Amino acid sequence: MTGSTFGFGEPTTSAATVATFALDKYEVTVGRFRNFVKAFKAHTPHGAGAHPLIANSGWLAAWDTNVPTDPAELATQVQCDATYQTWNASGANDRLPMNCVYWHTAFAFCACDGGRLPTEYAAAGGAEERVYPWGSAAPSSTNAVYYCMGDGSAAASCTFADIQPVGSRPLE
Q: Which of 61, 100, 120, 153 could anchor a disulfide with 80, C-beta 3.0 to 4.6 Å?
């Protein structure tokens, strides 16, 4: 397995045995996150979301102070930017990807959803070590929404319309 350097120096290589894993095919939608908000409890169970082979990798009770205490506070927390936030109380944005979520809240969501946040290795496709979810080819408008071109407008001309529904750019 080759380790990433995140742009700092030479890649590292180390031997590792990795257990089988699965990732969701698509990002978490606002609608799916809405279900989490409706069922939200102030405290994620201690140890939830743990990796089965890594001791103490699950939710820590000390993190409870880093997440809201009730559904209303959680719904307020994800309202980060009036122009670009996808959370909407009406449900109008339920097919869009959820954004504006803090790390602890994302961990709690994954734990309560029966999963956990992916590692760098999992995000790279495991042994495939992909640069992008579809492989090593640079992003294009057929496989990714990026650089504010989701609505077909010029690059860097950012509007809310650039945020496209989850699954609108299927893997090739």
A: 100
